[in-house]
Amino acid sequence: MLAIVKIAGQQFKVKAGDSFYVPHIEGKTGDSVEFSEVLFTQNGDDVLSGAGVKAIVTAEIISDLVKGQKVIAFKMKRRKGFRKKHGHRTQYTHLKVTAIA
């Protein structure tokens, strides 16, 4: 079974057993999380989308806090001596889909 789920404003294509990274959500390692905002499901030839979808995706938190790659924001104005360097690392949560019901 395949589903498209909306998590933290982003859409993810998931199957049972898949693991993926989402923007940081609350919870500890080993906790179970349910996502009820399912936009699309496909089970063989059976396709549901829109308001007719009544599925729930259940996932387990593998890692509660994973840092992404460092992103540097550098600003400079030539011949003025103006330089600004800021950086950040986005935080993610590693999930594994246990069931789509």
Order of helices and strands: EEEEEEEE
Discrete helix count = 0
Overall 3D shape? elongated
- What order do the strands of the largest sheet run in, or round the barrel if closed? 2-1-5-6
Report the structural category. Answer: mainly beta
Whole-number total of structural domains = 1
N-to-C terminal Cα separation, in Å? 9 Å
| Main beta-sheet strand count, sense and barrel state | 4 strands, antiparallel
Q: What is the β-strand count? A: 8
Based on CA atoms alone, the radius of gyration comes out at 19 Å
Describe what this molecule looks like in 3D.
The protein has 101 residues and is mainly β. It has one domain. 0% of the residues lie in helices and 70% in strands. The strands form 2 sheets. It has a 4-stranded antiparallel β-sheet, with no helix packed on it. The chain has a 4-stranded antiparallel β-sheet with strand order 3-8-7-4, with no helix packed on it. A hairpin with a 4-residue loop joins strand 7 (57-77) and strand 8 (82-100). The chain is elongated and about 65 Å long.
